[in-house]
Structure formats: C-alpha cells, structure tokens
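As agreed, record minuted below.
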Amino acid sequence: MSDLDVTVEGGPGRRLVLLHGFTQGPGSWDPLLGALDPAYEIVRVTLPGHGPADGASARVRLPFEAAAGAVAEAVAAAAGAEPATWFGYSLGGRLALRVAIDRPDLVGSLVLLGATAGIEEPAARAARVEIDERLASGLERKGVERFVDGWLAQGLFSRLPRAAAGVEERRAGTADGLAGSLRLLGTGAQEPVWDRLGELGMPVLLMAGEHDSKFSALAFRLAAGIGPSAGLSFVPGAGHAAHLERPQSVATILTRFLDALPG
C-alpha cells in the first residue's frame, strides 16, 4: 500500500476526514477549521501527487480508483477504521465519493463541495484527458509557480481573493507530482459513477457556491441520483472555492448537517 501523509488532531468529538482540491494541501482547511467547534477530531490527508518533495504523498502515482483505495487505507491506518464524516472539495470530493461507494464501512456521512460523479460521454472524457495532458505538459515545462498563477487565473476562481488562495502551499508542490495528479486523477481519467449513486445509504450533504453555476447544477444532479438521504446547500456569495471564500458560511452549513446526524 502506498504511503500518504495523514495528520490526526483535535478533540474527542465526531471525526472529520478532509480531502483537499487540486494543487492544495492540508493547510487549505485552516480557515474552515478556525470557524468550527474545536471538539471535532480532524483527519487531514495530503492527496497523491500533492505536497512538498520531502513528503510521502508527492511521490505517490496511482490511477483514480486505486488512489481512492489508498486514501481509505491511509485514513484507517492513521486514525482507525471507524466510520467518519468525509468532506471532500473538488478533486477531494470526487475521491471522497469513490471512497463512500467502495468503503461504506469507513464513511458514516459524506459532504461534497464543488464535486461531480465524473464524465459519462466517452468523447467528452477523451477531450478532458487531452486538456489535462496539455496542462500537465505545460506544468512540467513552466514550473509550479507559473502554473499555479495560471490555474488561479481561471474564471472558476474569479471570486477567490489571492490572499485567501493559499498560494504558498500550492507553490510548495512538485511539478512531477502535480502533473501526475492531472494525468491520473483528472475528471477524464476517473470511471464515472452516476449509475452507482443509489448505493449510498449514508447521509450526504451536497454543497456548491451560489455563483458556481456548473457545480450547482451538478449538485442537483447528484442529489437526484442519491435520493432522499441527500441534502443540498448553496454557499451565499461564494464561487467554486467556497471553503476559502466564505469559510464561516461553510462552517455554519456543515455544523447544521453534523448536529442533525444520529449518534
């Protein structure tokens, strides 16, 4: 089993497993955690291909489904195999969804922010693979610093202030690791799981920024596929990176969901 960097901290309360987005790292959760009750036990995973060169995760190269399995195993090894609330953002949301399908024993409840169940149409998947290959090649050519600047310049992040973007942590990643993540963990590289959403029996909270129209529509579609155990919340004033743009609002929505869970 591939080693991944996992930290466990916090109090004796409900366990939250946090999976960050592409180019991010465990520090990206600090604004949200600052707005949450400190009693939660917090498990932060550094995803495959991410983190600095001296970390374990930066060296891990796994295809998407195997990466989800490695994340599940790493969390169980570091924190124990009890069911927890898994919260994933964007790339981390896609991985958390896969963990919930493959390892429901570990996922007592699921929170997805700005996530999707994949791309169903073969032509659209192939086009996305091509786009991610171009991005990965450009990253290897230009280096991490220029790539991160270009990544954050996308319209998806137009509402994310630079001061809240965690630029230094993003720039600490390696070109090889992040390029590998684009190729192996991109939306085109994953098997779509829209037809398996009905298998999810645990409570699910689907979140998107109210101005993130693409992922708001995907949240509605995810909710329809999951069924009555899914709830929807849209983060006021936020775009795609809602946990960085409006951490207090995300914390309020998350706390309401957690407080309503059994046990």
In short: The mean pLDDT is 97. Strands lie at 6-10, 15-19, 41-45, 84-89, 107-113, 204-209, 230-235.
